[in-house]
Amino acid sequence: MAIPDLGRSTRPISSDVELRAEPGSFRDPANRVFHAGNDVLRALDETAAQHWRELAGSTFFPPLLAAGKVCGTEELPAGAQVPPAATPVGVDPTGVGHPAWAAVLRHERIPFVSHPYEWSFAMLRDAALLHLEILRAALPAGFTTKDGSAYNLQWRGVEPVFIDVGSFAPLRDGEPWAGYRQFCQTLLYPLMLGAHLGLDFRPWLRARIDGIEPEQMAPLFRGVRRLLPGVPTHVHLHGSVQRRSAATSTADVRAQLRAAGYSRELALATVRGIEKLVRRLDHRPTATHWVDYQRTCGYSGDDRAVKERFVTAALTCAARPRLVLDLGANDGRYARLAARHADYVVAVEQDPAVLDRLYRTLRDEGERRVLPLVMDLADPSPGGGWRGVERASFAARADADTVLALALVHHLAIGRNVPLPEVVSCLAGYVARGGRLVVEFVHPDDPMAARLLANKPDGLFPDYRRDAFEALLAAHGTVTDRLELPSGTRTLYRVALGG
Question: Closest Cα partner for 435 from 388, 496, 477?
């Protein structure tokens, strides 16, 4: 996947295109993000526009842009057509609005938006390191970032990219990094939980959009744990300073730091120290039986070859898919296959150890068409933040041309007790209109299904039958192809959803 070369485009934004405010962009009143068709626009007020032009003319920012470490960005020329709705109040869902925008930027569109609680440990660490690398480049050039949130980063495959261009601001000597607290709460603390305690950070981040507070971390790091790398400074000292400064205005804190001689050089040294700490933090999730799935899954060589041919035919039978979801991706075998025939693939896997291994492997290979995400499909990411829409749910983001659900249905229907009609309806809901679903039904007499059924009361799943499954598929679309694998206990289907 090539980095978009936006250049200095004069392509106008059609006034006929509906302008939609991005629900997750309202916390900084100086700039707002909008969607106009396939365009991603950022409207800037007078101060933010001035900061952008200084940023674009700096020595550090263009190289980051050229290297793809910051999302592709251009300023629309003054004469370009911008939808009138980009300036007035009416598009602001918060009801606050903005009197006028001084400039409008056009950004590269990220192929699939994900959230930090869907990333593996290594993904979160690499995102944190990119944020610190960008800040380390910005400080000597007289810039800082106002935010330190993990949500300021997204992915092109396994390559992190910084997306919050509106976060850059001129640095004033004597002022600390304004994003430090957010960085700790959404990046550093989750990494510490994994590296130091072996805890899964994802439930913590999913529960709180602002991340983990120092007060939540401190009780976990008592006794000898107080001395673990980064804990004394970034947990206990940071928490203590926050408590003491709670009754002090931000202006007073800045004045005290300036009086104490806090400088740009000290800020840079602090960032380098945090970067060194983050590089030391590592965690390999405990391996499970899913790590060796390709050997233990029960497929014969003939089964695997026939299955791969069927999936390839499904991916190439119509126009090249823009987006493929591989649900229950395991080690990414079929996600890789899909990446040969699609623009972009999102590989969703529940097991953190399997997904983290897949990410590290794809990263080493430089793969930029496959985005691996950790998610339990029986409990997918809900909407979160303000009014439940500031962070979109997985269902709201999933609008794929092709959905692969291979060796998945029995785990949901039998393993998680989800009624079969609900499973089929959910899978079909992830497919865009006119798209296709490629799904595998594991028969009740298959060894894997039998193993799951052995742990359930007799007669609990009377409707888990192939004929019932096929009737459900037909209710959602047209079964255009079916194939029983040579083993005789698994059947593959290609279903065309209504256009």
Answer: 496
Query: In the chain, helix, strand, coil percent, each to 5?
Result: 45, 20, 40
Question: What's the average pLDDT block by block, 10 residues per block, for the chain (499 residues)?
Answer: 48 67 87 90 92 96 97 84 44 45 92 98 98 97 95 97 96 86 97 97 96 95 95 90 67 55 81 97 78 59 94 94 97 96 97 96 93 97 93 95 97 95 97 96 93 84 92 96 95 90
Pairwise CA distance, residues 224 & 216, whole Å: 18
Cβ atoms of 116 and 48 closer than 8 Å: no
Amino acid at the residue 150: A
Detail the DSSP E strand segments found in 301-357: 323-327, 344-349
Task: List CB contacts of 50: < 8 A, sequence separation 6 or more.
Answer: none
Decide: 1 and 368 in contact? Cβ < 8 Å: yes
- 207 C-beta neighbours (distance < 10 Å), count: 11
CA distance 374 to 116: 10
d(CA 372, CA 366): 13
Can you read off the two tokens belonging to residue 434? 């006119």
Residue recorded with tokens 């496959």: 370
* Structural contact between residues 304 and 440, judged by C-beta atoms closer than 8 angstroms: no
